[in-house]
Specification:
The complex is a heterodimer of chains A (about 350) and B (about 190).
Chain A (H helix, E strand, L loop, with lengths): L1 H35 L15 H11 L10 H18 L17 H23 L2 H32 L4 H6 L10 E2 L3 E2 L10 H4 L2 H16 L11 H4 L9 H25 L16 H4 L3 H23 L7 H29 L2
Antiparallel strand pairs in A: 1-2
Chain B lengths: L1 H23 L42 E3 L9 H5 L5 E7 L5 E2 L5 E2 L1 E9 L8 H5 L5 E3 L14 E3 L5 H30 L1
Antiparallel strand pairs in B: 1-6, 2-5, 3-4, 5-7
The chains are: A mainly alpha (about 350), B alpha+beta (about 190).
InterPro entries (chain B): 4Fe4S_Fe-S-bd, 4Fe4S_Fe_S_CS, NADH_quinone_OxRdtase_chainI
Keywords (chain B): 4Fe-4S, Iron, Iron-sulfur, Metal-binding, Repeat
GO molecular function, one term (chain B): NADH dehydrogenase activity
């Protein structure tokens, strides 16, 4: 019985986290975009507009569910739930701190990529079910984009996993700091099992993973449908893309899914490349910074900080770079990212055999 | 291809550093100064937003904003209504039985304005009415913020006569005209006889 209660509690905590994160990110996105454009952003709702996301969500809750008469009612109703649930379930295998993980799967990375692909189905359902040409165009673009970008993302993740030798994200994290069970080397030369910190992160254990990290980050932008890869919801071309017909709480679910997805992919990037819940501070002689800053609370703190920095970068990029055209998008994916990701994977193999 | 990749990163970084500079410049705001200020164009960094109802840009006193009519100076000549390109001025005049008084520039007033309505929703702020006005009683002011919840509130009524007064004047005029008519008819009859 307690077993199930724990599961429910964890699930509720994760849901609460995604919901609160979405509200904070919504506010941050508005403020960052405003500051970048020399504006002030929301200022009237509460001090500095702090209550703006709550006002937004209240507005959404008050709105009527409108199902277009020509829409496929079942697909239309289910789509936002499937999209959100797919992202939400991805959180199941993500470790937050040493020993703190909802479920420790030895197939963690594989599971996440499998469950995130379900989101594509939800997007296609939303577009098809709306029976609207813009929605359908948007969802087709989205599917084409996500399916394409999963290849460089997946291959660059494999490059990292080959260095860590595990698909369990908890183990991948543990292998990047002072808690590592196996010998780990900074740049393949200097054993840093007792030094830890930033030196033990995957991108510094094997420097070609910096390239893999950049590829993964670019691909993850595309998977979140974030600018500059936001052609599925290109406002100037497709009104709002696949969610053009949605209103009220269902529209809010799309938002929730988008921001949860942003956090999820950032957290995966942090776990695979940036040391997971490990501290960036190394042990320097008697100053045992890494020992002092490793623990449950510290772990949660570090992973959330790393993920939030990456989310901030995503927001920053969104308000800087213009949208890519469809052909440019596919060019970038198939002609640049995919070959380079394969090269990274190859180097990972050689690194594993020759250096480690 | 390698060159292209590096060019992509270089140009992206250029844009990203530009937006980052703006992001960090957001700590300060530009001061709200009028166009007359000598350093109006010197403020280049920081937030450009003017939080309108709380902050207002100073405007010249002789701005070309909403119309105002000084009814004491109006001789109800109807020129403004005639010149108005969008017909937003509506005037109804009643002839007075005698000279009513004088405007501040010495013109004699001979007409009552029973109605002097300006529909600000129609007004296009061309200022033609202020040019043709012989007594300069219709002017443009520096007032521009007139937000109303009812469209009819944008029809400004400048006439200071009540309906009863207008009715009274109209009857007086009718009476005078009837008397004149009678006098004329009497004179005509006399001539014939």
């Amino acid at each position: 019985m307690n077993f199930y209660l724990t599961y429910l509690l964890v699930a509720t905590l994760l849901f609460a986290f995604t919901a609160i994160f979405a509200l904070v990110a919504l506010y941050a996105e508005r403020k960052v975009s405003a500051f970048i454009q020399d504006r002030l952003g929301p200022m009237e709702t509460g001090k500095f507009g702090l209550l703006q996301p709550f006002a937004d969500i209240l507005k959404m809750l008050h709105k009527e569910f409108i199902i277009p008469s020509a829409a496929d009612k079942v697909l239309f109703t289910l789509a936002p739930i499937i999209i959100y649930v797919a992202v939400y379930m991805g959180f199941a295998t993500l470790p937050w701190a040493p020993g703190v993980v909802p479920v420790s799967l030895n197939l963690g990375v594989f599971y996440i990529f499998a469950i995130l692909s379900v989101e594509t189905v939800g997007i296609l359902m939303a577009g098809w079910g709306s029976n609207n040409k813009y929605a359908l165009l948007g969802s087709m673009r989205s599917v084409a984009q996500i399916v394409s970008y999963e290849i460089p993302a997946g291959v660059s993740v494999i490059a990292a996993v080959m260095i860590s030798q595990s698909l369990d994200l908890q183990e991948v994290s543990a292998e990047q700091g002072i808690l590592a069970a196996h010998p780990i080397k900074f740049l393949g030369i200097w054993t840093v099992n007792h030094t830890g910190g930033i030196l033990a992160w995957n991108i510094f254990q094997a420097p070609h993973l910096i390239v893999a990290f950049v590829i993964y980050f670019i691909a993850s932008l595309a998977e979140c449908n974030r600018a500059p890869f936001d052609i599925p919801e290109a406002e100037s071309e497709l009104v709002a893309g696949f969610h053009v017909e949605y209103s009220g709480i269902r529209f809010a679910f799309f938002f929730l899914a988008e921001y949860s997805m942003m956090f999820l992919v950032s957290m995966i990037a942090a776990l695979l490349f940036l040391g997971g819940w490990n501290t960036p501070l190394p042990n320097i002689g008697p100053a045992r910074l890494a020992d002092w800053t490793t623990g449950t609370a510290w772990g949660i703190c570090w992973i959330v900080m790393k993920a939030i920095i990456l989310v901030g970068t995503q927001i920053w990029i969104r308000w800087t770079l213009p949208r890519l055209r469809v052909d440019q998008l596919m060019n970038l994916c198939w002609k640049i990212l995919t070959p380079v990701a394969f090269a990274c994977m190859l180097i990972s193999g050689i690194w594993r055999l020759a250096v480690m | 291809m390698v060159g292209k990749i590096f060019a992509g990163f270089r140009t992206s970084w250029k844009g990203l550093s530009l937006t980052l500079r703006h992001l960090f410049a957001a700590g300060e705001s530009r001061k709200v100064v009028g166009i007359k200020s000598a350093n109006y164009f010197d403020q280049k960094n920081g937030i450009a937003t003017i939080q309108y109802p709380h902050q207002k840009l100073p405007v010249p006193e002789v701005g070309r904003y909403q119309l105002d009519v000084e009814m004491d100076d109006c001789i109800v000549c109807d020129l403004c209504a005639k010149i108005c390109p969008v017909d937003c001025i509506e005037i109804e005049s009643i002839k007075a039985t005698e000279a009513i008084g004088q405007t501040s520039d010495g013109t004699t007033k001979r007409l009552y304005a029973a109605k002097f309505d300006i529909d600000m929703a129609k007004c296009m702020y061309c200022g033609l009415c202020t040019v043709v006005c012989p007594t300069e009683c219709i002017v443009m002011t520096d007032q521009y913020d007139k937000t109303v919840t009812n469209m009819n509130d944008l029809i400004y009524q400048f006439s200071d006569m009540t309906a009863e007064e207008a009715h009274e004047k109209r009857e007086a005029l009718e009476k005078q005209q009837a008397e004149r008519q009678a006098a004329k008819a009497a004179a005509l009859k006399k001539g014939q006889a």
